[in-house]
Every structure is written in structure tokens, then in C-alpha cells.
Amino acid sequence: MRMKTLRTLSVAAAALAVTAGLAGCGSDEKTTAGSGQISGTVTVFAAASLTETFSELGKEFEAAHPGVKVVYSFGASSALAEQIEQGAPADVFASAAPASMQQVVDAGEVTAQPATFVSNRLEIAVPKGNPGKITGLADFGKTEPRLALCAEQVPCGSAAKKVFEIAGITPQPDTREQDVKAVLTKVTLDEVDAALVYRTDVQAAGDKVEGIDFPESAKAINAYPIAPLAEAPNTAAATAFVDFIRSARAKEVFTAAGFDTP
User: Residue 111 has what pLDDT?
Assistant: First the structure.
């Protein structure tokens, strides 16, 4: 295995967190796909918008495979891809956009063909009661409402940029956040009048927010690919986890959460 150096504090922190999880959750030995059974820890780097569904499915995966522990690192897909490139230990990568997955593929970090397992689209999120009287995407071109968007380099920000270009709107955000959950938090805390997040995030927030659909979202749908990683410490568990995420049972969970499935 080629040696790598973690070059940023964020990557070092991620590696320390994962190492701590490994120390407390199972075997340190590398498990191969041909071992006939899986054990130990499977470390999954996943897009922030997958937090609720992957957490639920992780518990089911652990129940089906006694002795296996799923450890997650959720965040912006672009940031996770960079961490993987720089050597953060992980078994599986699930991205909210093909571009972030392709970054990892181009770096030689994936040996199996990534598979699209769900897709998602944007929705306007407003605080309960819609105090800002937001009616649609055009409000993001106004200076009066307090507005939040994802940073353009992350998948939800890239999708937002596309819908604004399609609609001919120059957005006037008051804040740009590093992942979609951070944007949603601005809405739930009533710190902004509106934000663009995924429709699954609106659904996951329950009665804390309200969602407003807009037609341009259908032209900026994000496909979510998943793949086991070439440097996976636990290749057998990585393969099994990816297979489970693509299973009929997982599709039920994703569909209930508002994702579209292949």
C-alpha cells in the first residue's frame, strides 16, 4: 500500500476521529472480500444529505451482520473527496454528485465502477409559518429577505447555481454554508427567511420548516454515486455495505425519505 501524508488539519481531525472509532469498535486487521464473512468496522464517508437514511440503514446493516460496526463521517461531498485523496482512512464513499466521485476515481482511489443509488433535487425551505412571505425562486434575487445557500463548490451549491442560471436570477445570499445541513440549520433557527436545500432535508426537518417547490429544480437533479474505496481497510465489509445500500430494502428507506431511486 502506498504511503500518504495528511496535509490539512481537517483531514488530520477526520483521521483521528476514525482511528478512535476503529480502536473502540472492532478488529484492526484488514478483512478481505474472500474471507467468507465480514467483521470489524466499516468506515463510510457520505454526503451530509444522507445523514438520516444512512444512520437508519447502518443500524439495519449492523443487525444483519453481528460483529460489524458502521462508522460515519458526514459532510460536503467535495470536502470528503479531498480528505480521501489526502489519505483519510475510509472504506466507502457515497457522494451527492458525480463530480466529487469522479475526483476520487481520477485519483485512483476507486477500483470498482461507482453506482448511482438515488437522486435528489432542491427545494426552498422556509421557517414554519413562512414569516418572510417567500413565494418562489425569484425571492432569492431580492435584497430584502434573509437568504442562505450552500457554497458553490459543494453539490447543493452547484445545483443552486444551475437553477439560478436557468431562471436568469442573480442570487443575493446573506450567507453561504459548507454543507446542506448547515444551511438547513439557518432555517430551523429562524436566522434566514429562506434557503435552498434538498427536498429530503425539508422532509427530514418535519414541522420545523416548510417547503416550497419550484419548476427549475427538475433541471438540476443530483445523482448520488457510491463505491468501495481502493485503500479500504475492510474490503469485505465495504463491498457488503455498498450492496446493501443498493438493495430493495434500502430503496424503501430512500423512497420514504423523499429520494428518487433508479
Answer: 81
pLDDT tens digits along 18-46: 333 333 333 333 433 333 489 999 999 99
Q: What is the pTM of this model?
A: 0.84
Cα separation, 90 vs 229, in Å, equals 7
**CB-CB contact of 46 with 76 (8 Å):** no
Determine the pLDDT at residue 246.
98
**175-194 burial, b for 16+ CB within 10 Å, e for fewer?**
ebbbbbbbbbbbbeebebbb
Measured distance CA(132)–CA(122) in Å, rounded = 19
Q: Which three cell numbers stand for residue 252?
A: 424503501
Ranges of the chain with pLDDT below 50: 1-36
Q: What pLDDT shows up at residue 28?
A: 37
Contacts of 40 (CB under 8 A, 6+ apart): 25, 26, 27, 28, 29, 31, 67, 68, 69, 234, 237
Cβ contact 22:1 at 8 Å: no
Nearest CA to 167 among 124, 129, 233, 215? Answer: 215
